[in-house]
Amino acid sequence: MEKSISMPVSIYALGGLGEVGKNMYCIENDKSIIIIDAGVKFPGIEFPGINYIVPDFTHLKNNRNKIKALFITHGHEDHIGGIPFLLQNIHVPVIYAPRLAAALIKNRLEEYRMADHATIKEYDSDTKVKVDLFTVSFFRVTHSIPDSFGIVVDTPEGRIVSSGDFKIDLTPIGKDIELTRMAEIGKEGVDLLLSESTNAEQEGYTPSEKNVYDSIDEIIKNANGRLIVSTFASNISRIQQVLESAVSHNRKIAIIGRSMEKAVDISRSFGYIHVPDNSIIETEDVKRFPNNEILILCTGSQGESMAALSRIANGSHKDIHIIPGDTIVFSSSAIPGNGIMIDNIINQLARSGAEVITNSILNDIHSSGHASRQELRFMLKLMKPKFFMPIHGEYRMLRLHAEMAEDLGVKKENIFILDNGDSLVLSKGKVKRGYPVEHGVTYIDGKDINSLAEPVINDRRVLMDDGMFAITVSIDSKRNILLTRPSFYVRGFIDQGNKQASEELKTLLEDKIKEKLYSKPSFAELKLLIKEVAGLYVYRRTKRAPIIIPVILSKN
Ligand SMILES: [Zn+2]
Ligand SMILES: [Zn+2]
């Protein structure tokens, strides 16, 4: 047999480094690219009108012929949510996903009318996939959604392991984490480990789902009135615990929110959630049962204004209104940046006479699905990697994770804290830094992949912070005279009620426009003048810079 020539492997992230969200890790050699995960990030309030943020796919587009497969670690949005947008840009021959994630992806693609865009194959712990020179295999981990896996990529240059999202839960609700298998993988030798860092700031161990279940059960058992539980639709393990405890305490369940209904439907039909049909009722039937026999499960734990919980809290939901004696449980920790929205909704709920439970293990960051520091150490000990790259975290989390690896004996020069777009090269079992690849972000407005340019986002930001100010001017463009006084249309801008200032600005504009008209200006020149005069005036008075829209009506 002829000896194969060395073909170095590069490893890079297009998303997921320096942030929690839009995970996308790529492994590439001269012939092929395989991708691990294709997630979205949810924009905070600083991105008005933007629904999703996904990685910039330019590098993948430029290398489209090399793309062989996408491997999904589990069914969370920050790992699968970018798939429709990726597939609108690039043909991916096959997507490998564990069972529940595969169901969620199929459902999502149907929503986008893209079901025929992808071949989805399910994998399990004993699946082995050969993609050119790469051999990919999987190990089961525990997380907050069933069917979560770590991924092993064997290449002629060495072995790469990616942890996926995990915690080490010894009393999980679903299947066990495959610790012995992980130890074997480590014993055989791991050249480069990519391990998630979300909870790298949390000392100790993340509590088991069993503890979380006991705490939910305690709340459900002790509540006297209706229970309203809100959580992420993606937190299937949590939904399962809530519903199963509700059933055991003879409560009927009403589910509100489209994403929540979908999640429960899919999970029930695949056997991940066990709830008898007669336990689930329609929202309009809630009033037919005594209050203490009702549990309402809904979306909106982050205070999102369009989600079910907000609509219930502000009285705009058609069937469900808050009544005194209701207990509302927030069952997920706040995503950074959402604090104000959540506080608003809690106040609204409390004012309506509900009891709001926010300080339980359920929304304690410790009880998330992610490994705390001891479990991260455990992963490092099991895998004993020669080279280490922390992933899935903001910079400070990656840094802490890197320090832990060093404490556990990974050589400092063998640890790489990367940014999106930076790359590593694995060659003959050695890892060093490589050339960066093209990277960036793409903003998605609605379901449209036609990404929005940064200036549009900036305009929206200005509109939100400083408002909008339209100035209409009528001129006779033949005779170059002003026909009427300028008129204003103002939105979301603090000074709008000030009559005196408004008259002063009108006069100022009138004078400047008349002066300008002598020189027979173009419309563009007039618009620029109006922008400058009004912009300066408003800024001097209010220290604000609203978007100024000059509108010129011309008679001739
Ligand atoms: Zn996850
Ligand atoms: Zn994740």
Summarize the structure.
31% of the residues lie in helices and 24% in strands.
Observed structural traits:
single chain; 556 residues; alpha/beta; Metallo-beta-lactamase, Chain A; Rossmann fold; Ubiquitin-like (UB roll); 3 domains; eight-stranded mixed sheet; six-stranded mixed sheet; 15 helices; 27 strands; 24% strand; binds zinc ion
Quote the average pLDDT: 89
Bound molecules: zinc ion
Rg over C-alpha atoms, rounded to the nearest angstrom: 28 Å
Provide the CATH superfamily of the largest domain.
Answer: Ribonuclease Z/Hydroxyacylglutathione hydrolase-like
The CATH topology of the largest domain, please? Metallo-beta-lactamase, Chain A
Question: Based on the structure given, which CATH architecture of the largest domain is correct?
Answer: 4-Layer Sandwich
The quaternary structure here is: single chain
Structural class, please? alpha/beta
Helix count from the secondary structure assignment: 15
**CATH class descriptor of the largest domain:** Alpha Beta
- What share of residues is helical? 25-40%
Low-confidence stretches: none
Total beta-strand segments: 27
As for the number of domains, it is 3
Shape by Cα distribution: globular
| Largest beta-sheet characterization | 8 strands, mixed
Portion in strands: 15-25%
Strand order of the largest sheet: 7-6-5-3-2-1-20-21
